Amino acid sequence: MGQDYLKKILTARVYDVAIESPMEHAPQLSARLGNQIHFKREDQQPVFSFKLRGAYNKMAHLPAASLKRGVIAASAGNHAQGVALGAQRLGCKAVIVMPVTTPQVKIDAVKARGAEVVLHGDSYSDAYQHAVLLEKKHKLTFVHPFDDPDVIAGQGTVGMEILRQHQGPLDAVFVAIGGGGLISGVAAYIKQVRPEVRIIGVQTEDSDAMAQSVAAGKRVQLQDVGLFSDGTAVKLVGGETFRLVQKYVDEFVRVNTDEVCAAIKDVFTDTRSVLEPAGALAVAGAKKWVEQHRARGKTLVAIACGANMNFDRLRFVAERAEVGEAREAVFAVTLPEERGAFKRFCEAVGPRNVTEFNYRISDSSEAHVFVGLSISKRDESAAISRAFKKAGFANIDLTDNELAKTHVRHLVGGRSSLAKDELLYRFEFPERPGALMRFLNTMHPDWNISLFHYRNQGADYGRILVGLQVPSHEKKELRSFLKNLGYRHWDETDNPAYRLFLR
């Protein structure tokens, strides 16, 4: 059967619609990891993913009578676009069943290729069941997204290209796994031509059906899957893909959401391209594998398999990439509610860059602040925690706390009965060391900071919101302070949003 796949891949018909995607060296990531990292750029395909290879190969091998009746698929993403493009090129009818929850941009992309879209159900499973009914009713041919030999062979041409484009030393190829179509084809080819090259599958921690199945020796169906990497969110892998992965794949790496976000940023840094989460999975896996094995001097290929990113996800990705790259540590720190405590805390932080600071006065004796700090390596947060404790500040390391990173950082605040004589100002600080300390050193020592919010957004200046408790008879001193400070500022004390939620 393995020899059959080698022949099927070598004779696959994909280049009517697909390009031979480039292999690109990643200089900055390579330098940082101490290994030679290459990206196989499947995100540059006409539908921005590898999926058109397998879909077209399946359709191109259909008998003329089957093509005349048409094809059907169930998909909410890249496979749908691949089938639609293939049908457009072959001049056959294509019906794509998509969940009603599918974003309009994806529906429009499929329709633009001439396919008929049927919206049904809330999930892929619902859409799949309806597609099976329509397949029988209209005598259409079902094009499976992964569990079909012709689809697997089409995806296997990615592996064929990798070996053709990189004929020198190659230690490992990293491949994202959803249902297993891509890794099955890539592994079936590479392991027969260059068996010494390791094939490493990458899955998210909350969608690891293939890794669990291989460990159990049988296909395992997951109850739930994570949705961030929606392109690999598969509850049950294919029977044929499971067989091939068992036979050819050497090991698996599991990564979390933050690590995927960091990988998206890494690819952008080296290529100025933005991958979707599933598309960056292999890169995240390569980075984690290097760290786990302390690998140095290896030559590694990561398949960048898709770039159909929803634009509204970019804010989340940017927010979480720093933690995923171990560039940010997040803490809850308790300070005594007394004059000068905030300044002492800043001195304890030292030269580190503060990436975030959230605080709202809520207790007369203690202040609880949410703070983010730049770090250079993963274990640095423990040393920071010890330094805070030595300075007299109790603290909790929240770097791996999902609730804190996703929600609590945005919810620190609220009204406070202790915020008497509070004035609210919005500032633009220059994004350079010492800007905050200059603010604190210039401020009147008797004024209390009752609210403080700051988040580094990567600009040349920081946006800061500060609540100052200034007695009414000291307004003149306040105006003088603001003038001498020289930072752009706005008085937001009468802002209706402040009055409704914070005052």
TrEMBL record:
Its cofactor is pyridoxal 5'-phosphate. Pathway: Amino-acid biosynthesis; L-isoleucine biosynthesis; 2-oxobutanoate from L-threonine: step 1/1. It is an enzyme of class 4 (lyase). Residues 329-400, 423-494 form the ACT-like domain. Its EC number is 4.3.1.19. Keywords: Amino-acid biosynthesis, Branched-chain amino acid biosynthesis, Isoleucine biosynthesis, Lyase, Pyridoxal phosphate, Repeat. It holds the Pfam family PALP. GO terms for molecular function: threonine deaminase activity. Gene3D superfamilies: 3.40.50.1100, Biosynthetic Threonine Deaminase, Domain 3. It catalyses: L-threonine = 2-oxobutanoate + NH4(+). CDD domains: ACT_ThrD-I_1, ACT_ThrD-I_2, Thr-dehyd. Transmembrane segments: none annotated. SUPFAM superfamilies: ACT-like, Tryptophan synthase beta subunit-like PLP-dependent enzymes. InterPro entries: ACT-like_dom_sf, Ser/Thr_Dehydratase, Ser/Thr_deHydtase_PyrdxlP-BS, TD_ACT-like, TD_ACT-like_sf, Thr_deHydtase_biosynth, TrpB-like_PALP, TrpB-like_PALP_sf. Catalyzes the anaerobic formation of alpha-ketobutyrate and ammonia from threonine in a two-step reaction. The first step involved a dehydration of threonine and a production of enamine intermediates (aminocrotonate), which tautomerizes to its imine form (iminobutyrate). Both intermediates are unstable and short-lived. The second step is the nonenzymatic hydrolysis of the enamine/imine intermediates to form 2-ketobutyrate and free ammonia. In the low water environment of the cell, the second step is accelerated by RidA. Belongs to the serine/threonine dehydratase family. Homotetramer. PANTHER family: THREONINE DEHYDRATASE, MITOCHONDRIAL, THREONINE DEHYDRATASE, MITOCHONDRIAL-RELATED. NCBIfam families: ilvA_2Cterm, PRK09224.1, PRK12483.1. This is L-threonine dehydratase. The gene is ilvA.
